[in-house]
Amino acid sequence: MAAPTQGSTYEKIEISNLDKSETVDLRLGVTSFQYFEDLMSPVITAVMSITNTGNTINHEGIYNGLPLQGGEEVKIHITSPMEEHKEESPGIFEITLYVNKVTDYLQEKQKEVFTLHLVSKEGITNLNKRVIKKYKAKRIDEVIKDFLDLVECEYEDEDIEKSSTVVNFIGNMRKPFSLVPSLASRAVPEGANSATAGFFLWQTRTGIKFKSIETIIKNKEIAQEYTFNRKNEAMESAESSFAKILQYSVANNNDVMAAQKTGEYSTYRIYFNPYTFKFTEPNYSVFKPKDQETLGTEKSEVSEEADPDQIPGPSMAHRIISGVYSVGCLEENVDFKGTPVGIAATAINQETLEDSGQAISRYASIFKQVVTLSTPMNVELQAGDIIKCIFPQVSTEDEVDTIQSGLYMIKELSHFTSANRSFTALKVIRDTPGV
Q1: How crowded is the C-beta side of 59, counted as CA atoms within 13 Å?
Q2: How far apart, in whole angstroms, are the C-alpha atoms of residue 44 and residue 34?
Q3: Residue-number span of the structural domain to which 112 is assigned
């Protein structure tokens, strides 16, 4: 039986020069490989350490013989211990990345050592593109799709969630991925009727995804269940040994002052209309979150000292947001919902009163609990997946800690493999405690 943390098998690791005329097999020279995904990153990255001996190509080593200049294509195909145990066809983890840079180059007699920093094609292509278009009354997901097509991204239509938010928008010659955060924070999922603004755009091994926090949580599709056992005893079966938490730590659990500063508990939004010379109505400016989907089952209580209801009237809220409306500068006869208006050049191009408070609260709340953990290498996991973690009580191994255990969302993921060990490191997040 394959040991859960033994080294993985390199089925293929090939690097080609820039014109694809020469290819080198790196399998025997790779001393370690680490792969990264992040829920807040539209590109994936990896780091590969290489030790090479002998005349590999053109009577030289790889560094000068290929030569390495940046931008070279690297094809990777790895079989993890879990896949070897399942006796499935090798190759769930297959990916093509590109050299971003080479560091730590050392040369000795008949030996060279260096590190390849790899990135997905989209990371390089994005920096060659600029958004020059003007978008008229477009849903945010439609704008995002246009960005992805511009960067030549691979994605499935079902991975790009529809947004009900309509915008009039100018790219201002900025890079596509640089514009994504501001649009994603304003997007509200289609059919939503509560505090649900806030999307993520991220890349996994299977492609680009654009999903709302609310929808990811609402679906609650569990990718894997993991269990922590302090006794470090052998698990009952081979399958359970691959579903074991090797170690973990709680990186953060409800930073009250940070929640107050970011506006998680309450915000006061005030905007100025340069056409009417009026500010937004104070009665509609205070936002307090409610009716959010949660990963946990326990209600997240706010202490009396931090309770926004205890804030005196003149102070209004934990965080004040101010701005100037964009009025009539993009569309003469269309309001922010895409509806024609009778008076030209007076429509507010994007009403941010509601979604600004929603997004601040939603993004902040999902990071309320942060846990880092490591497991046997599982290449089927992806950033954005929901996993279930079972932790024991402090006093006994026989009872489950019903507060700390439960569902978590994968925010960051890293697969690491070397000659004799493989594991997956995760940073997982959630908004409320409870199974």
Answers
A1: 0
A2: 11
A3: 9-119
Other Cβ atoms closer than 10 A to 317: 20
Domain assignment of residue 206, yes or no? no
Q: What percentage of the chain reaches a pLDDT higher than 90?
A: 57
Contact at 8 Å (CB) between 39 and 370?
A: no
Write out 61-104 in H/E/C secondary structure: CHHHHCCCCCCCEEEEEEECHHHHHHCCCCCCEEEEEEEEEEEE
What local confidence, expressed as pLDDT, does residue 195 receive? 58
Q: pLDDT tens digits for 15-35?
A: 999 999 999 999 999 999 999
Residue where a domain terminates, one of 119, 137, 168: 119
**Pair (317, 241) in one structural domain:** no
- Average pLDDT over the chain, rounded to an integer: 88
Q: Could you tell me if residue 170 is inside a domain? A: no
Angle of helix 353-366 versus helix 176-186 axis, rounded to 10: 100
Domain count, the chain: 3
The region of weakest confidence among 66-75, 197-206, 311-320 is: 311-320
Q: pLDDT tens digit string along 227-237? A: 998 665 555 56
For residues 393 and 314, state if they share a domain.
no
d(CA 284, CA 28): 65
Looking at the fold, whether 404 and 338 belong to one and the same domain comes out as no
Q: Any idea what the CATH number is for the domain that residue 52 is in?
A: 2.40.10
> Under a CB-based contact definition with an 8 Å cutoff, are residues 317 and 267 in contact?
yes
Taking the C-alpha atoms of residue 217 and residue 196, their distance in angstroms, rounded to an integer, is 11
